[in-house]
Every structure is written in C-alpha cells, then in structure tokens.
Amino acid sequence: MKRKMIMIIALLLLASLLTAFTICIDPGHQEKANLSQEQIAPGSKETKAKVSIGTKGVSTGIPEYVFNLELSFILRDRLQEEGFNVFMTRERHDVDISNIERAEFANSMAADLCIRIHANYSSDPSLKGTMLLIPSSTATYTAPIYEESRRAAEKIMASLREIEGITSLGIRVREDMTGFNWSKVPVLIFEAGFMSNPEEDVLLASQDYREALVEAIVSGVVDYFLSRR
Ligand SMILES: [Zn+2]
C-alpha cells in the first residue's frame, strides 16, 4: 500500500515536471501540394515549394500525408498522457500551411521542441530504415537551435534502436529544410521509414509498429527533458 502511494506520488511529480514543457507536432505535408515558392531561409535567394506532395506507399497506396497525421495523433495522445502540453500544426488533411508557417507556429507557441513527422522515399526499393534529421550548426539562423535539436534527436534515436529488427539510419544534418531554417525552437524530423520499400511500407501501416515507434519517440523525449533540467 505504502509502496503504491509512493509510486503514485512519483508519477504525479514526473507528470508535473513534464507539464512545464510544450511540444509542437508537425504532421508533414497536406492533401494538396502548394507549389508556390517561399524562401528556404531568412534572407536567402533560394526558394522551395511551400508544401511538397510527399510520397505514397508502394504496397499500401497510403499517401504520406495520411500516414503522417495518423502517427501524429498517436504521438500527441501519448505525449499528453505523459503530461506534456502538445500543439499540432494541422489536425486535418485539407489545410494549406507552408513550411515557413509551420515553423512560425512552433515559434509562436514557444515550443520547447518541435517534432516533424514524415515518411521517406527512395528510387532504390531495397532501402529501408528510420532516420532523424536535424538543423545545421554552421548556418547562422539554425546555430542557436543546433545543440538542443541534436540532444533530443540522440535520445530519440537511442530508444528507436531498441525496437527489435529495426534498421536505424542515424541522425543527418540538413541545411536545406525550410521548416528548420525558420525555426527558433529546437526541431527535428522523424523519418519513420521508407514507403518506397514494399515490406517497410506494409510495416508502417500496422498499428503495432506505429505504436512501437511512438513509444520509442516518447521515451526519448522524456529522457531528453528530464536530462535537460
Ligand atoms: Zn515528407
């Protein structure tokens, strides 16, 4: 009985520690691409489409934007259960929110971490595995968020590697992501796997695998915030 009370108090304390943190989830893409252009970084002459169309499951036919939102809902619910304050850039498919706008939304929420959910594509159908993308340490606009973005990514990658049979492609730095370059808060992209790989596409559609991925992200995120205090 006493032990149970202590457990409950410990859980409540943990939840109240985590309530202090705000997480933004950005489910990548949307129903219709918006190919009009926006600057890839503040002051840059280079532009990219506001929102690209994303990929599609080679076996399941599931569009990436559908997968991204479904996984994001599971992640949102689990993070809320842990006590985090969670916002999403979209909760529907029929929206039109550019990558700059998504970054600015996370900035305006003063998110402690922004997790962008995507699935991958390759012209090589044998390529599979999960990957985390983070902003660059050298670009002036992302230098201030590099360190925390990397630390969060390392914690998440460590717990993803514990999923049995998973292929981990590690953490990659990217300078060409509009959604990174406009972010003022730590940010990363979770690339769940390759929808161009016939087996991994089927796996990504399974509820069990989705829940395993989400559990790994949540445990990495909890580790990150507990170690940050
Ligand atoms: Zn994508």
From TrEMBL:
<protein>
    <submittedName>
        <fullName>N-acetylmuramoyl-L-alanine amidase</fullName>
    </submittedName>
</protein>
<keyword id="KW-0732">Signal</keyword>
<dbReference type="Pfam" id="PF01520">
    <property type="entry name" value="Amidase_3"/>
</dbReference>
<feature type="domain" description="MurNAc-LAA">
    <location>
        <begin position="103"/>
        <end position="222"/>
    </location>
</feature>
<dbReference type="GO" id="GO:0008745">
    <property type="term" value="F:N-acetylmuramoyl-L-alanine amidase activity"/>
</dbReference>
<dbReference type="InterPro" id="IPR050695">
    <property type="entry name" value="N-acetylmuramoyl_amidase_3"/>
</dbReference>
<keyword id="KW-0378">Hydrolase</keyword>
<dbReference type="InterPro" id="IPR002508">
    <property type="entry name" value="MurNAc-LAA_cat"/>
</dbReference>
<feature type="signal peptide">
    <location>
        <begin position="1"/>
        <end position="20"/>
    </location>
</feature>
<dbReference type="GO" id="GO:0009253">
    <property type="term" value="P:peptidoglycan catabolic process"/>
</dbReference>
<dbReference type="GO" id="GO:0030288">
    <property type="term" value="C:outer membrane-bounded periplasmic space"/>
</dbReference>
